[in-house]
Amino acid sequence: MCATLTVVAATRDDAAAGVHTLGGLVRSLPCYFTFCLVVALATPVMGLAAVGLGLLACLAAAAFTWRWVPLAPKAVAAGEG
């Protein structure tokens, strides 16, 4: 999925768009994984309330992930520099 989205963005716009798409996915996939894992483990015990716990866990993962995973470098436009 990541490769497909990256190729589409790079083909449609330019290579920098593909880099930024992949960077955003890399930074956000741990949040999605955390949400799914918490909901899967907590649903048998908590029922539908596990979704709220999953959202809180997702936000905690986002705070950690987005702080420690660096952004893709900005591309220098042609003729600048």
Question: Could you describe the 3D structure shown?
Answer:
With 81 residues, the protein is an all-alpha fold. Helix content is 77%, strand content 0%. The chain is built from 3 helices and no strands. The protein has helices at residues 2-12, 15-46, 50-68. α1 (2-12) packs antiparallel against α2 and α2 (15-46) runs antiparallel to α3 (50-68). The longest helix has 32 residues, at 15-46. The model is unreliable at 76-81 (pLDDT under 50).
Key terms for this structure?
single chain, 81 residues, mainly alpha, 3 helices, 77% helix, disordered C terminus
Estimated radius of gyration: 17 Å
Distance between the termini: 35 Å
| Uncertain residue ranges | 76-81
H/I helix tally: 3
* Category by helix and strand content: mainly alpha
* Percent of residues in helices: over 70%
Total beta strand runs: 0
Main β-sheet description: none
How does the overall form come out from the CA principal axes? Answer: elongated
How much β-strand is present in the residues?
under 5%
